[in-house]
Amino acid sequence: MLTALTSTTTSTSAATSTATNIVVNGGFENSSTSYSPWTIQAAAGSTATFTVTSSYFRSGTNSFDFKFGKPATPPDANLTQIVNVKVGSTYRIALFGEAPVASSGCSATVFLDNLLQGKIEPAGGTTWIAANITTTFTATSATATLKIDALCTGNAAASKDLYIDDVTMVQIS
Question: Which residues 6+ apart lie within 8 Å of 80 measured at CB?
């Protein structure tokens, strides 16, 4: 059952505010070779490689490419960044992911201080999949660790790419 809600707002100010993205270099545009201030960690024994690429992107001129070799054992790696947060505030985390090979078995899971926030599973092809996550995060300090965990499973005979672009985290209340 759907319920319609009606809201009326009266404003006497013409000022418009825009939320500030607290993720630095979320579009991987700072350089064609650097993903700083992001850090990367791959599981021990992983054949994964990591690059900023200009050959496949959602917006701007770059994206981040998790490339899992054949076979990718273990098939996971993560991208992390320390972000400044406000205790008890609500945030919206958004990112886009693409895995151009159909049936790639790739996914990107988002964590904030190791707490699961959401997951995307691109189906393959040329469509970027969006993750829009609204979370109430109760921080115990002024910083938090934003982590994107990439995982690609399935056909071990082919290498797989998982592209990430346009990562944002904004305070909404």
Answer: 38, 39, 40, 41, 145, 146, 147, 148
